[in-house]
Description:
- By secondary structure, the chain is of the alpha/beta class.
- It has 3 domains: about 15-90, no CATH class; about 105-145, no CATH class; about 160-250, 2-Layer Sandwich (Nucleotidyltransferase, domain 5), CATH 3.30.420.10.
- It has helices at about 1-15, 20-35, 50-60, 75-90, 105-115, 120-130, 135-145, 155-160, 205-215, 235-245, and strands at about 165-175, 180-190, 195-200, 225-230, 250.
- Strands 3-2-1-4-5 form a 5-stranded mixed sheet, with helices on one face.
- The radius of gyration is 36 Å and the shape is elongated.
Amino acid sequence: MIALVYFVLAVLASQFKSKSRLEAENAALRHQLIVLRRRVKGRAQLTNSDRWFFIQLYRWFPLILEALTIIRPETLVRWHRVGFRCYWCWKSRPRGGRPQIETDLRGLIRRMSIENPLWGAPRMHGELLKLGFEVAQSSVAKYMVKRRGPPSQGWRTFLRNHAPDVAAMDLFVVPTIGFDLLYTLIIMRLDRRDLVWINVTAHPTAEWVARQITEAFPWDGAPRYMIRDRDRIYGTVVTRRLRTMGIRDKPTAPGRFA
Length: 258
């Protein structure tokens, strides 16, 4: 009688379940019957295929735990975690690449970097090659001792110390009312934000930028440093013109002064 009541309640509750959930529960129940039919000596024998089937079904429909009778829900969850762990172990397996650096070689790199503080990675890499060690320069730089000495002056200190002798230039795009693009070059000094030069062109070239620098500064009034971004328009022609005028080129990273 009690079993009949449970059956009637299950039938009534099935009306409120989605079709995909009912199909998943039916698949779980059907596969449990298949497992029970091939049991040996009164005990159900689960294969890896059975476990994989229940795990995938659980991943897609976690509510099938209510329909499992031959295995406990915590057992299925444990199978899922073990499979997940095995998958990521397989995913992160070593796939060749560079051989690992031996411990003795790493210690030698650290010792050389400590005893020769003025050596950089290229110099140390060359010395290791002379000694017969086949190691990449990037690996040498990775295992060198990182010193925390007094850092060199940053951009803020540089600008504060050399503001009267620093100028900056930038090239930006201005759209017109006719949907054309004009390129505007601005050169200004940083000590008082004085606008030194401005010009507009529709076809900017490195030669045009170099000519604007020459026209912006007389030969006796050129700054010591010129700050610019790393736009490709500033080619070798521009850097050669700056060097000829006695101006040191100081390219900056994107967003440095944003």
